Amino acid sequence: MSCLPAPALCASPLPGHILPESRDDVAELLLHGELSAVFQPILWMREGALLGYEGLIRGPQDSPLRAPDRLFQAARACGLDIPLEHRCCRVVIRRFAALGLPGRLFLNISPMALLRVADGALDLAALLAESGLEPARLVIEITEQNHGGCWADLIPIATRLRAQGVQFAIDDLGSGFSNLGRWLDLRPEFIKTDKVFTTGIQDDLLRQQVLRSVCDIATVAGVVVVAEGVETLDELACVADLGVACAQGYYIDRPAADPVRTCWSGLIASLAERRHADTRGGLESDPAHDGTEGRALRLLRRVPCVSPTLPNEAVFDLFRLHPELHTIPVVDEDVPVGVLTRASLIERFSLPYQRELYGPKPCRQFMDVAPLVVDMHTPLMTLSRWLAETEGHGLVNDFIITGQGRYLGIGTSQDLLQALNRLQLRAAQHANPLTQLPGNVPIDRQVQRCLADGQACVVCYADLDHFKPFNDVFGYHCGDDVIQLLGRVLSAHIDAGLDFLGHIGGDDFILLFRSPDWQMRCKAMLDAFSLGMARLLDETGRSAAGSYEAEDRQGQRRCYDPPTLSLGAVSVEPGVYQSRHQVAQAASEAKAQAKKQSGPCLYVERRQPKPLFASRSATQAA
Fold this sequence. Notes:
- By secondary structure, the protein is an alpha/beta fold.
- Helix content is 41%, strand content 19%.
- A hairpin with a 5-residue loop joins strand 17 and strand 18.
- Helix 3 crosses helix 4, helix 18 packs across helix 19 (476-492) and helix 19 runs antiparallel to helix 20 (518-539).
């Protein structure tokens, strides 16, 4: 959402009744009139954590140039657009620093104005130093203004600024010159999608597909996507389901001279409740999959629909022209009111005189007035249950798919069965065969999703002490029993609605906690595993306190105690870790510290890497 409007079609000044009388008066107002900055928050959607603020400009109070579009149109007419942009940069940066706002500052600069930064017209490094603002907290948004043919010249400038820590965003992707080619050239850290894709996205399949494709590319490029123009909860929930990490818009907060800095817990709670309601009872609620993977929308087929007033003869002709069709929906003003089936119509017309009598009649006479109608967000498991349980329907019938109550298309039972089979097969491929818990692929996806969404969590690495010698002495059958015991213990002490448990392999497990009482849960796991291990040893005829001899890794005989559980935990805060590999390394180091202790142990790593946008003052305070 740029504070710099799209270029005017011509350089003529605004109508005389809007601007001061003389060109000199306009220039004086632009160069020396009071400008003020306002800031609009940008949020990581999962937790409501703040990514930063976009700095926007406002013209002199009580002036016709108060609105930014008029301000910059007047500047272009006077040939002062670049000096005005540089002045706006100074105002925004200084005000951002003076307010002590947290997070990153997204600063709008046109390509031509950025070129002049390299010429020394604006000393950006000196301005940041004077304001006490770390370069790593600045994100330059490349706007639509006056790019001309200068794009290639921006790349070396961006490279130099990036070496100082400055990051880049392409503003309004999908409008003007903000296209995929610019993305390839600049390789920005952030992509801000144009609000045209956000407006009404919950009801528009094409908008959803475009935004999903942007997110897929962003994942490969390691780019954070920000959806601009979010104005309703429906839009917020939809872009979150599509995999967008961050959002900005009036629904979150309007631009303000002194913006709020607290967490948006109420908004995120509303979003979480909305998404929980959408996914309740669904096999596909695994957030590693996109928002349509296990929903009725995935089955959508576009087929002709007819009005209830269309003659039966015309419907029969449609079936004849489309031999692949078995069902034709009857729709009245976008609302499905019934269905006509090929078999039913042929059966009726096969009776004597029925075609002659009823062929010219409206098709509403022959339609099924109680078809199965499902919303596009309906989980596939729920849909299959409905088909099996609804009297008069079955797995041989088609069904109508709607969005916000409006007709979209139909789904077939055959497609439903194939989709369910794919989901089950995928789940089996990604599950550990011994415990049936999610394996490495879903674990990686879950961690990566938390990082992309800026979602705070605690990652805990669970490992058994002295498991290898125990397995060598008692055999792999008993070793498998121990691993399955551990899987059951960990599963029993997590909150299935908030936490995630995965099985890496062997005696290694990963937990992602969002439960606030996670430490209490970990201690319960340690106690429960020790008790379970004692019972298991009793079943083998050995005392839980008894030791046994086995070879160590150097081939030397030594005494071992029964396996105990070690847990190494690390807190993952938004903006601290860059990749799942860094998270895995930190969790492994915490686990190694836990295993150095004798007996069951929970080790919590208290040290944190420096956040990406930590301010200078925060660093000094630490």
